[in-house]
Amino acid sequence: MNILITGSEGLVGKILSKKLGKEHKMANIDRANGTDILTGPLPHLKNIETLIHLAANPNPFINEKEAHENIEIAKAMIRASESYGIKRIINASSINVYPYLKLFEAGKKITQNTPLSANIRFGDGAYGRAKIETERLFEKYCENNNISLTNLRLGCVAPKEQKNGKMYPVDQDIQLKEPDLIRIVKKCLYLDGIRNYVCVSKRNGFIDNNINFPTG
Question: 2-199 belongs to which homologous superfamily?
Answer without folding.
Answer: NAD(P)-binding Rossmann-like Domain (3.40.50.720)
